[in-house]
Amino acid sequence: MSVAPHLHLPPTDRVLSSRTGWTRAHWEATADRMLDALTPYATPGFAQYRLPGRGSWSGVVSDGLEGFARSFLLAACRIAGAGAGGAVDPALTERYAAGLAAGTDAASGEAWPRLTDCSQQMVEAASIAVALHETRPWIWDRLDARVQERVVDWFSGFVGGRTWDNNWRLFQVVSEQFLASVGAPYSASDIEEGLDRIEDWYVGDGWYTDGDGRNFDYYIGWAMHLYPLLWARIAGPGGDGGRSAVHRQRLHRFLEDYPHFFGADGAPVHQGRSLSYRFAALGPVWMGALADCTPLAPGLTRRLASGTLRHFAERGVPDERGLLTLGWYDTFLPSTQPYSGPASPYWASKGFLGLLLPPDHEVWTARELPLPVEESDTYTALPAPGWLLHGTRHDGIVRLVNHGSDHNPPAPHSADIEAGADPDLGAGEDDPHYAKFAYSTATAPESAPHALVRDVDGHLALLAPDGTPSRRRRIHPLRCEDRVASSWSAARLPGDERAYRIETTSVLHGPWEIRVHRVEAPEGAVVREGGHAVAHTQSPFASSAPDWALARTADGLSSALVALYGWDGGVDGAAVARDVESNAYGPHSAVPYLRSAPHAGGRSVHVSLVVLSRDSIHPEALRTAVRVRVDGDSVVLTFLDGRTVEA
Which is nearest to 549 in space by CA: 620, 482, 480? Predict the structure, then answer.
């Protein structure tokens, strides 16, 4: 793929950057294009950027503030990275200084909303605080004293205020630390309590959960790890009370596994909320270098980061106007949340933190090194979030097998469930970006409302007589080690108060995932399982037989599902479900799926083989790749190479 000419990029350098061709100059050019593209949408005093697109639930003024704040962080990386002698247009600094003056002036006609408890302004204030700190010599120190006073007055809304009890606690931490850094009144207890609170959410091996429950997604990197170390930069040497040493150790551990989330083409695994932030996923990678706590070699840091930025640039991000839209590649609203407005994607500015490192830093001067998936097939168990990562060198795809992240409040205790408590007590509706068994760097879940009615892909469901599928709402992890992970969830059907237990074990072998399902079901229910959804601008090819189904895109990405045991669905046992405008990867999508015969009631075992590959797939041959032996509750898988796994 080629990068769109509107980005005006310099020539590639295949000596320094053999994998991507990109250098610091490409990053600077991309940042400049994105910043320049915003100016037509600025209010007269530059306090707001009112971009085209769907508005958020917070309203147009809040959305305009969001445009200022999030792009200010990008501008800060560009300004501070260039330094006193850098080649940055002075108009950029002047524009954001003017916006600070107008945004805090009640008489300007474009003033920002006051900071109130749990308001969206709190999110945006944190970006402004970080940007002001990083550009202090060029912006804050040169502001008129009256403007400084107004900015302090606006930030003071944080003092003693209440935030949502998740990553938002850190917005208060960094914002009040900025107040402290300029000699303004602040609450030390607000800062201490916010930093203490995230200790409750640390679950080990470098992983936090974003608030109570099992909330694992990119917020762990671009918020839970990022803001504590941004806070430390504002607090300064000796001002962190020793906390930064712990935060740096945790980020170091997190980054040991993090490169395994990225495909050879630079794509991150498509999982979780706020995916329109795209290359914000690079924030923790750059912070590891900024805080001198990364386990990654400098050449790997830049290869990972440049690969991801180039991946999106090759696919129209930013678009022909130079703007980031609400979507993944182009606009795709079903993958967004109601809190997202037209400027929300500019949290991607965190992906440019590497520009704060000087041009002669080794992350910019070292030769690129390959990603893990470019060197070998990879298998990475992450017990904290309950994930397996599975990369295949021949096609560069990374797959995430999900047995632990559901974005729900904490589950009842096991003893309470055994005593009869509802295992889904307090759980919200299933979210396709958390509830699926598998995600990848090459696919996205079906997420449009009309597709969610069927809920086929990445899901094992019980089907009611009218076809209504059960949902995978709360995930109860059981095991995650080596190449095996398992969990259970409760399935419910309309008109039936009982919660039926579905326990699934995933086993990785070669390029495949084998799923062993132990299913409780009422008499007459049908068991259905879907594979990965593949999507393209053209309708995918589809093929099926009674015991397998396959979908393949025009560019050769195939998804297949093969029945190995317990399906027996007859001529209707496998098929491909098609949809349109339901997938972030393309307007035409397809999902292979299996169906069982009507259930006899009680317990059953179903075993399937899941494939996602850019290689040729021969489903009939794959049926012989694994021998399955079921003896009561024991399921033993034997592979052609002699490996045996008891699932």
Answer: 620
What digits encode the pLDDT tens for the residues 167-205? 999 999 999 999 999 999 999 999 999 999 999 999 999
Determine contact, residues 594/563, Cβ cutoff 8 Å. yes
Residue type, 262: F
* Cα distances (angstroms) measured from residue 220 to each of 282, 391, 636: 12, 21, 36
- Quickly list DSSP for 8-21: -PPPP-TTT-TTT-
Average pLDDT of span 115-137: 97
Q: Alpha helix locations (H) across 453-522?
A: none
Count Cβ atoms below 10 Å from residue 410 Cβ, excluding itself: 13
- Structural tokens at position 453: 């009615």
Residue where the block lists tokens 């990562």: 389
Contact present, 490 and 480 (Cβ < 8 Å): no
Provide long-range contacts, Cβ within 8 A and 24+ apart, for 292-298. 292/248, 293/248, 293/249, 293/251, 293/252, 294/251, 294/252, 294/255, 295/252, 295/255, 295/256, 296/255, 296/259, 297/366, 297/369, 298/361, 298/362, 298/363, 298/365, 298/366
The two three-digit tokens of residue 11, written as one number:
């020539």
Write the burial class of residue 105 (CB in 10 Å: 0-12 exposed, 13-18 middle, 19+ buried). Answer: middle
Residues 322, 390: contact at Cβ < 8 Å?
Answer: no
What values do phi and psi take at 539, rounded to 5? -65, 130
